[in-house]
């Protein structure tokens, strides 16, 4: 490993690093690893913001439900570290063991409880406790890393809304910087969970999430603004249940981008949200109704050494 990138594996080492960096501007990218172009775009953004960039890679047990994929979540450590290094990351915080962050166990510690209005719908409805676990670990990481900037993907729009509100409500001294969703050429949003999609049929069904978003955007461009009409029409155009038996739509909704509350009428400030299962794999996506999706060129692949 390049001597310039530090691998930090426990909390005293993060505190030591932070003392060394007291005169630096620190930009932070929290992740769960299995890095892809989406994460790398966040790192590139962080490099424009700070004199030092730190990435955390931690599969946080507190944000997984009992029947979710915590144990089988991909953890390609060496590859992730090599990618961080090639993208000019200064330090990676890679806790050697979840117990370092939860020394007294998960269930006996203080937790951040985000407001119900932001967690009762959408992903919060099907993943009870997920956002509390996510917000708790993010606040712990902010307190350890003490970044001036933290970059989060719009891919996880509900998460981003919750983090923004937590930082406002709890006076956390960090500026939250959003970064646009990076997608494959066929529209599928990059995700570490895409690794679970194996067959062409599964892939065709995974693509339906972005097809729903694009179709609703097209209807909006044609001056359709009634939310239920647009969502229903897009659904009937895109999802043919006979063709896609493994595709189970969980939600397809429209919210105000700032409040995250459902809207009856679409405006330029409306965010479309979608979640679905393709067989056992749960995928999410979202887009502003007024902003056409940006797709990666067909040839784009992660290559080590590329910046
Ligand atoms: P995760 O590793 O899934 O916890 O994601 C870490 C960060 O990367 C979060 O801020 C995500 O929103 C962001 N992210 C994940 N996928 C993408 C993507 N396709 N485009 C942009 N950001 C992403």
Please name the defining characteristics of this protein.
alpha/beta; 3-stranded antiparallel sheet; disordered C terminus; binds adenosine monophosphate; 34% helix; 9 strands; 307 residues; 10 helices; globular; 18% strand
Compile the SSE list and pairings:
Blueprint: E1 6-8, H1 11-20, E2 26-31, H2 37-49, E3 52-57, H3 77-86, E4 91-93, H4 116-119, H5 123-126, H6 130-145, E5 149-153, H7 157-169, E6 175-179, H8 200-206, H9 208-221, H10 227-238, E7 247-256, E8 270-278, E9 281-288
Bound molecules: adenosine monophosphate (AMP).
Shape label: globular
- Tell me the structural class: alpha/beta
Largest sheet: 6 strands, parallel
Average pLDDT score = 94
The rounded distance between the terminal residues' Cα atoms is 17 Å
What does this structure look like?
This protein is of the alpha/beta class and 307 residues long. A six-stranded parallel β-sheet has the order 1-4-3-2-5-6, with helices on both faces. Strands 7-8-9 form a three-stranded antiparallel β-sheet. The longest helix is centred in the middle third of the chain and has 16 residues. It is globular and about 55 Å long. 37% of the residues are buried. The protein binds adenosine monophosphate.
């Amino acid at each position: 490993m390049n001597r310039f990138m530090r691998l930090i594996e426990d909390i005293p080492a993060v505190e030591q690093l932070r003392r060394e960096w007291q005169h630096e501007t620190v930009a932070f990218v929290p992740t769960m690893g299995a890095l892809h172009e989406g994460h790398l775009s966040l790192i590139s953004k962080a490099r424009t913001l700070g004199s030092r960039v730190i990435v955390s890679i931690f599969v946080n047990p507190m944000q997984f439900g009992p029947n979710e994929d915590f144990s089988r979540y991909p953890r390609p450590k060496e590859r992730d570290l090599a990618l961080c290094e090639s993208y000019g990351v200064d330090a990676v915080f890679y806790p050697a063991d979840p117990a370092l962050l939860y020394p007294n166990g998960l269930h006996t510690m203080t937790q951040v409880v985000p407001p119900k209005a932001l967690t009762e719908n959408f992903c919060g409805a099907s993943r009870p406790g997920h956002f509390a676990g996510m917000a708790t670990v993010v606040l712990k990481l902010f307190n350890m890393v003490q970044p001036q900037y933290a970059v989060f993907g719009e891919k996880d729009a509900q998460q981003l809304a919750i983090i923004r509100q937590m930082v406002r409500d709890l006076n956390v001294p960090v500026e939250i910087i959003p970064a646009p969703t990076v997608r494959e050429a066929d529209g599928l949003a990059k995700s570490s969970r895409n690794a679970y999609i194996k067959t062409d049929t599964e892939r065709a069904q995974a693509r339906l999430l972005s097809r729903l978003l694009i179709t609703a955007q097209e209807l909006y461009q044609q001056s359709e603004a009634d939310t239920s009409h647009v969502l229903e029409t897009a659904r009937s155009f895109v999802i043919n249940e006979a063709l896609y038996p493994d595709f189970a739509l969980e939600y397809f909704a429209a919210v105000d981008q700032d409040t995250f509350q459902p809207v009856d009428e679409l405006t330029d400030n409306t965010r479309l949200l979608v979640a679905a299962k393709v067989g056992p794999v749960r995928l999410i996506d979202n887009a502003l109704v007024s902003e056409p999706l940006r797709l990666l060129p067909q040839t784009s692949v992660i290559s080590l050494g590329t910046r």
